[in-house]
Structure formats: C-alpha cells, structure tokens
Design brief:
alpha/beta; Rossmann fold; 2 domains; 12 strands; globular
Length: 338
C-alpha cells in the first residue's frame, strides 16, 4: 500500500508509525511540520517562514498526493484550511483515518469526575475538544487511538474505535537491566510538566524516604535533547513517570524498552483494558512512598520487572507490531470499498 501520514507530529508517533509501515513492506511517507525534537519526516510542511505561502504550496502538494497514495492517515487535524483536503478525499472516495493522541480530545471536566488525582487546572476546555470531535465524526465513523483510556470521550461520537497502542522503536532502545548487586539505586524522573506529572508528590515521597535513611540517587531530567535524556534513562534503576493522568504514555514505553521498572499511575477501572501482563508499577500520590521504598530495597525485583517490561514492549509496542495492526485496519477499509 501507498500510505501517507500527516500533518502533526505528536511525541514521535507519526514518524514511528511511518517507519514501522516501511519495515513491514509498505510505501509509507510522513508529511509534518517541524518540531523542536527534529523527528524524521519525508516531507517538510513548513517550506518557508510565511504561513500563507506554506498553505498555497501544501495545497498543490496535497492534490498530487491525493492521486498517489491509497491511504491518508491524519494525526490530530486536517492539513488544508477548512478541511478542504478531507472534503476532496471524500469526493474521490479515497480512504482516510484520524488519530488522536490525548490532550487533543481529553475533556478536563469529565476527567476530573472519574479520576480523583487529575489536577489539570483548566476545567472548562470542552469547547475546542468537542468541536474537534464533532467535525471528525461527521467525516468518518472510525477513529484511531493508542489505548482505551480515551473511550469515554470518543464513544459518543464514533462507532468504531481502533486501539493500536503507543509506538517505540525497540531496535534503537537497547535494554540495560538494573544490576541486582546495586544497593543504592538511581531513580530518574523527567517532568516535562511538573503539575501534570505530579512531580511534587514524587519529591515529597523521596524526602520522606531520606528521613528514614533509605539510600538512593535521584536524577531529574529537564532541558535536554531526546538522545541526551535516553542516555540518562539507560543508567536508571527505577523510572518514576507520572502520578495523576491515570494512563501511561510514551515515556513509560521507552522506560520499559530500556529494561527499567516504570512507576506510573493507571486508574483501576482501566487496568483490565491493557494487555495481560502489563508490568507497570502502579502508584498514585497516596501510595508513591511505599511503592518506591519497596523498589529501592528490592534489587532483584527491579531487575525482574525490568526484564518483564522489555518483553512486554517488544510484544505490544514495537513499531512493526503496531504497524501490522494499522495494516489490518487499512486493508479492512480498502476491501470494504469505503
């Protein structure tokens, strides 16, 4: 199949989806706007510094792509103003999909009601989210998402929710399992957003553990490139991710791929929606201290969970595994002639 993914890169997922599809034999291309992380892409959608010129150039490119690709996989939004590209794809009966990634559809007022730890201060963000959901549900009855934590937002609008899981390239993330002989472990936390990640609760828990004379080294990763951060993650014995959102993200997958026990919060009502054997070490603001204490004092447990995490990511989140799920979704639509 000839597949193009566009237009917004979200935490490397667009580029990794494209790479995975290439590796299983498809002619897949990525077209996206640049980000500060310099993710790989085949087509740069920002050809000039002038937005209106980019729109004109991308319009010409799109109409060429419309007759060159079999599948259009959108991430978060359409490409052309007013969704003209979607209207044209429907006109020529060309299959397309929309994939959301989390904050683009999460309605904070609903999340606050089901998750007692969620602390996003902007409760009334629903107008933009609902507008996005209503638009896309009028264009298609199918949606792609990483996990079931977003079903509550999607079910009122879409008949079919395709769960594909987050992607990591396991070939680039070599496991370094925690040393069973290391008595003083390294704990790594990467607070891209301190409030969202619940950093204050992690810091309080660690301070309390210090007062108990429990030894550990704490490393906080901020203001680094992704490659620099990965080097530090590789040295960790424990990765403390987030304690508030209630579902794991890309960082947790990367940590597991590196062979580390990853501490994060998954809501109890969502646990059954993850594949059997998910080796996340579940913790919330009320339990984080005891969870970290047990891991700090258990070198063998850290090692064992790290191995389980690597196996799990290879089985569930590797780019080729997820690409095969996407392939099945695409083929179904092509075969049904929709």
């Amino acid at each position: 199949m000839n597949i193009i993914q566009l237009p917004f890169e979200i935490a490397s997922q667009l580029s990794l989806s494209t790479q995975g599809l290439k590796e299983i034999g498809h002619n897949a291309k990525s077209a996206s706007y640049p980000t500060k992380f310099y993710y790989r892409r085949d087509y740069n959608l920002e050809l000039t510094k002038f937005g209106f010129i980019n729109k004109i150039l991308n319009t010409f490119r799109f109409f060429k792509w419309a007759h060159s690709y079999d599948i259009f996989h959108y991430h978060q939004s359409y490409l052309l103003p007013f969704g003209l590209d979607i209207a044209y794809l429907k006109l020529i009966n060309k299959p397309f999909f929309i994939q959301f990634h989390g904050s683009d559809i999460r309605i904070n007022s609903i999340e606050h009601k089901r998750n007692p730890y969620y602390q996003e201060p902007e409760i009334n963000n629903s107008k933009k989210q609902i507008k996005r959901l209503k638009y896309w549900s009028k264009q298609t009855n199918e949606v792609i998402i990483a996990d079931n934590s977003f079903d509550i937002f999607l079910e009122p609008y879409f008949n079919t929710i395709h769960i594909t899981r987050q992607l990591v390239d396991t070939s680039l993330l070599k496991p370094v399992y925690p040393d069973v002989d290391r008595i003083v472990p390294k704990i790594v936390h990467a607070p891209t957003n301190r409030d969202t990640k619940g950093t204050i609760y992690i810091e309080k828990a660690l301070e309390s553990l210090r007062l108990k004379n429990i030894e550990f080294e704490y490393i906080q990763v901020e203001n680094m490139t992704h490659d620099e951060a990965i080097k530090i993650y590789s040295q960790a014995d424990i990765i403390a991710d987030e304690l508030l959102i209630g579902s794991h993200g890309i960082f947790a997958c990367e940590g597991m791929a590196l062979g580390k026990p990853v501490v994060t919060y998954i809501q109890e009502t969502l646990l059954s929606t993850y594949p059997d054997g998910v080796p996340i070490v579940n913790a919330n603001p009320d339990t984080i201290e005891s969870v970290l204490e047990e891991l700090i004092l258990s070198p063998q447990k850290r090692h064992d969970i790290g191995k389980q995490g690597r196996e799990y990511v290879e089985r569930v989140h590797d780019i080729k595994v997820v690409a095969k799920r996407l392939e099945k979704i695409y083929l179904s639509k092509l075969e049904n002639g929709k």
